[in-house]
Structure formats: C-alpha cells, structure tokens
Amino acid sequence: MMDDIKSFQLGGDKDMTEPRFPESIHSCNFCNVQELDPGMEPKRTAGDLSSGTVIRYRGSRVRDGALKGCAFFKDIFNSLQSILKTHGYEQRNDLPHFRPENWIHELFFSYYTGHLETARGTWRCAMGELWGDIQRPKQKDSCYFVLACQGNAAAESIPIRPFLHDFRGQGSTSWAKQRLLECENNHENCTLPSSPFLPTRLLRIDASSEKSGMCVRIYLITTSELDIAKTKYATLSYCWGGSQKFQLNDGSENMLKGGISATVLPKTLCDAVEVTRNLGIRWIWIDSLCIRQDSPEDKTTEVAQMHMIYAGSFITISASRAERCGQGFLHQCSLPAPGTTGYRLPFASPSGRLGYVILSSGQMNSPIDYRGWTLQEHLLARRVLRFTDYQLHWSCGVVSMHENDFMGGLPSLHVRLLDQAYKMYKGIRAKDQDCRDWMDIVEQYACRQLSDESDKLPAISGIARAWARTSNDTYLAGLWKSHLPLGLLWSCAQPFEQGNFQAYRAPSWSWASIVGQVDWFDHNFTEVDPMLEVLSCVTNLTHLEAPYGAVQSGLLVIQGLLHQTVFNNAPELSALANKDREYLDLYLADVHLDFWDEILVSKVEGSRMFSLQICCFDESTGKGPSGLLLVTKDGKEFSRIGVFFFEPPQSYEVEELNDFQALLELSETRKLVQRSAFQGSVVQKVKIG
After folding, report:
1. Neighbours of 270 (CB within 10 A)
2. Which residues of the chain have pLDDT under 50?
3. What is the largest CA-CA distance in the chain?
4. Which among 214, 242, 286, 491 has most CB atoms closer than 10 A?
5. Is 682 helix (H, G, I), strand (E, B) or coil?
6. Angle at Cα 646 formed by Cα 642 and Cα 647, nearest 5°?
7. DSSP bridge partners of 534
C-alpha cells in the first residue's frame, strides 16, 4: 500500500516535487467500517461519499477502537475530550461521567469547487446530561484534507494530490505578480482611497551586487518628504510570537536609519523583504520597525491610523503559516505535512471501482488566524497575499483564489467579512444588516488571542474607524449606538476562562469586557419591549486621540422592566417556589453566564440579582422574553453577569425522544412561564457600568 502512495505522478506545477510521506498511513478494521446513526440516514456502504455526506461513528465505538489501538479513533476521541475541557466540563467534574454511547462523531465531507476536498469532524450529543452541539471554539474542530494518489480509483472524484511546494520557485513569484498586475489594471474596487496616505515611517529596500552575491539592505525613512502619489509600499501582517528582540527604539533608531542588512532581521521579516523586492516594490511597513516600541505616545498615534496604513498600502503580505517572528514563511510546504498522521479510508468512485482516500490531518486556519491584531490588518487591506501551510492565496475586493486552486477559496465567513470591509468604504451596506454584519466581525475577532488583553479595543479600532466613516454612527466601547439595545444581547462562550483581571478593559455591558469567544444569537430575538428605552450611553476614552481605542469607563442608562431573580450558587438559576412572584423564575430559560465558579461567586456575593427584559414573548414562535442578568450591591449601579433567552422546548428535554405528549406538556408549562415572566414588573431606570 505504501508503494502505491509513493508512486503517484505529479504534473502542472514546476514548483512542486514528490514529497516525503509519513512512514505509515493508518488503516484498521475499526475505522474502515462506518456506523451511521440509525433512523437519521439510510445506511451507506463504506466509502459512498456523495455530496453532503456525513459519516457517523458512535462515541462508544470510537472509544472502544481508541482503546484497542485505532489511531484514527484515538485522534477523534481525544478531540472530544479536548472540546469538553475547553468548555469547562473538567472544572465542573462532569468529564469522567459522560456517556460515550450518547455521543456521535460526524465526519462531514465538503465540496468547495464541485470536488471532494476536505473533511471536518464534529461531535454531537443526541441525549443525556450533555446536550446540544459542541463545536466551539470554531477553529478547534478536527479538519482533514482528503487526498487521492494518481492512478487510484478515488482520483476520479478527488482533485488533491500529495505535494511538496517551494514558495521561492519562479512559478509562485510569477503567479503573485500576475494577480497584482491584473488587480491594479482591472479592479475598480481595489483602487487607492480618495485621500492618499503614507505612514510616519517606512523601510526602504535597496539591493546591490557584491562578490558574495546580492546584498539587500533596509533603511528606516521618515516619509514627510516623500511623494505620496509615487510611493507604493507593502505592509506585513504576521505573528510576533512573543517579545521582539529586534525593534525600533531609542537605541536602534540611528542604526536603522543608517541601513542594515536584511539578513540580520528575524526570519519572517527577512522573508517579507524578499517577497516585497520580488514583487517590484521598494518600500515596506513593518510594525515592530516602524513604530517606536519604547514610546506609548507613538504607539497610540500609529495604532489610531492603522486603518489608513493598511488601506493605503499597495499590498499586504500575510505570513500566515509562521507562528512566531523567527520562523519565516518561505520554507517548503507539503501535504501531508511533516509530522502529521494520515488515515486510509475506503472510497467508492462514481464508476463503481473501489479505491481509497488518505485523510491528512490539518487546520483550515493558519496561526495568523488566531491573532487578534491581524483580523483588521486583513480586512482593511486592499490586497492580501497569504502564505499558508498548503499554498499561496490571493484576495482583493474582486477575487479570492489559491495558486493551485485545490481548495475553492477562503472559509465563507472570511470572504463575507472581506466583502463587508470593502462595503465600508463604498457606503453600500443595507441598514437592516448593520448589526448582524458588525457582530459577525466581533464573533470572528473575539475568539482570537491577544498577548495583552488591554488591547481588546485597540486591536479592532481600525475596523471601527472605517465603519464609522460610512455609518455616521457613535462608537461605544465595541458597540454602536444605533445597534442598541439588541447589540447588548451578546453571550460569553467561555465563561470558565474569565479571571480576576486587574487591568480595566471595558464596561460590563460590552463584549470587550470578557475574554474569548462571543456569540450573538439574533435568531432568538423577538420584538423589542416597547417600554424599553436607552436613555444615554457614554464612555471615557483612555487617549483622546484614539476615539475608537481603549476606554477608562463607561455607563449605560436604560429604562425597562426589571425583576429580581435568585441565584443558586451554580451555573443555573433556581426554581424556587414563588407564589407571591417576588422573584423571577428562570428555571426553564436558556441562561448564558459571563463567569463561572469563584469569579461568579465574587460577582454575586453580597449582591442582589435582577433580570432586565429586552425582547418580549412572541406567542407565534414560542420565543422570548430575553434580556440581561444584572447584579447590584447598592441598588444604584448595576453590572452585567449574563443574558437569558426563552425558546420552545426541544426533544432532548424529555425522557423519551418520541414522547410527543410529554413534549406538548412541557411546551405549555414553558409558555405559561414565558407569558407571566415580567407580569407585575415595574419600569425602572437602570445604570449599568
């Protein structure tokens, strides 16, 4: 079998050569026989991968196979344990007690360009003590590239062949130049902003021939005397991966102005200089070398104009595959990647021949997609050239494509966000889509990592400034005035990761006040309570010259129906006997807390808890009411600790999945609670900090 894998023929791309494969591709009797969930789909034979196919494996089978040495099942079972731990079940002591037989692993095969190209694994729980769809954080799903060797029956349907690619080859350079030339000459959407701009500083790239070969030097230049219209510059988007030893500060400024060899730079920066020069561009902007890292004032000034720096650049070079500054991004890439495991699964071709595919584990996202600062760098740029672990990718206002086109494009959300970024400048966003568009960006941004959590608002300030320019809206610590009150109904996806942070980030009503992923369940929303009114919302900026950056404080004054609620020292709200309706009973609500465990106790200890209704109950859909969970110690100022929603009951909430009578009774009980939830409540003015 390994001889078959190693004997494939490559063709078409002269920068590709035959790769070295892992010593073993795993295959066994456990993973070669799929087990579809009875009643959910008709049974298929192994390898029948028609469009949209989901192969399902029972959790108990996966566990047994993993224990008996199946590498594939061990991989996907470990992913379940990892996901559960990510969601805090280990901290809640639930992990040892979950029942694998209630879980199903779904291997979903995707078709990007009409051909099978990737498989993504997710875990779902059908019933039992853990319910729902656990896929968060979104990037943590298992992802496999589906490969077929030349001459194998599976190659009829599967276009991806194992490969080894050289980014320094002439083919990649020519392809990038061609994309750049075509975009510059033919794409109206990708023209320069109406007001040309140059950053305060740029690096000039000079090359000269010496006996030892070509010598490339860079010089730090203050741009005030340059001709803006004639100065094309590139920008670099990359992961620092820790503190940078080589950066612009008082000690290095004169040396950089006098010029240094590009070879002394960290590898990622050196590679960026090489790419810029190969594209025929003489200038490049790199944050660590063009912003004084020892000057808080210079940092504030430069970050405040980040939107203009990236929007004004001729092209942004994205070192997507590099996890740290010293790693570089022009080294060879291959699929399967070195050190990864391949899994051999049977595959029936359309012609009826039985072959096999190789699942090569990997990630659709690159290291750069996990860094907070780089989202706005990509969205604000007119053109982005991404160097990924698998190939070169180009995106601009018109085109999104890969060099070898073995994957059809970027993940759909990224493409949609990129489209929104260009619409910001054109002012053509539909008004009723504004809040959803903004929260899409927030959801994508919030799950990324920041080395300094105080950068939560500054790292998205460039996008906010661009948004404000076309919306004429007021920015309020990560939210927009016109989006209130619905914009307040975000939920924290990782409440167990919140700590007692000393540095202030944002007021509690802003998503920027918490760490990690944010969700915004607009499908749960109903009509806003007509008695609800946002009276005022103000924030105090940390730096007046950065109106979209960090804040020192914020206060939201809102008027609406408020009802006292009881908290039961756990991530659920108590269902107390409440005959006098002194307390609101949210036992049947879907409650999303911003904090768990000790942090939650510290927030509510000595406080009273209240529910503020934002949306009303809708009889026709069975949804609502929904609103904010607030606590107060003195009754004067409140803090947010979560949100609540009411939804119609689901089948997993009754003991027997097909017990429709029990489901109906539960539905009627819930509707009674929903209708009466805020009866007797009075309209009150609430100040939320």
Report:
1. 18
2. 1-14, 16-23, 35-51, 91-96, 113-114, 127-141, 406-415, 425-426, 428-429, 431, 569-580, 651-652, 654, 657
3. 92
4. 286
5. strand
6. 130
7. 558
**Amino acid letter at 355?**
G
Nearest Cα to Cα of residue 345 among 578, 659, 121:
121
Sequence spans of domains, the chain: 2-164+335-362, 170-331+365-426, 501-688
Coil vs helix vs strand at 78: helix
Ramachandran angles phi, psi of 471, nearest 5°? -95, -20
Q: pLDDT tens, 564-607?
A: 987 553 333 333 334 445 667 676 788 899 988 777 777 777 88
- Tokens standing for residue 360: 């090569």
pLDDT in tens, 392-439: 999 998 888 888 754 444 443 444 555 555 555 445 445 457 888 899
Closest CA to 493 of 86, 177, 96: 86
Q: What 3 state SS string does 7-71 have?
A: CCCCCCCCCEECCCCCCCEECCCCCCCCCCCCCCCCCCCCCCCCCCCEEEEEHHHHHHHHHCCCH
**Do residues 398 and 383 lie in contact, with contact meaning Cβ atoms separated by under 8 Å?**
no
Phi, psi at residue 306, to the nearest 5°? Answer: -60, -35
* Residues ≥6 apart with Cβ < 8 Å to 69: 28
Omega before residue 411 within 30° of 0, cis: no
pLDDT value at residue 350:
74
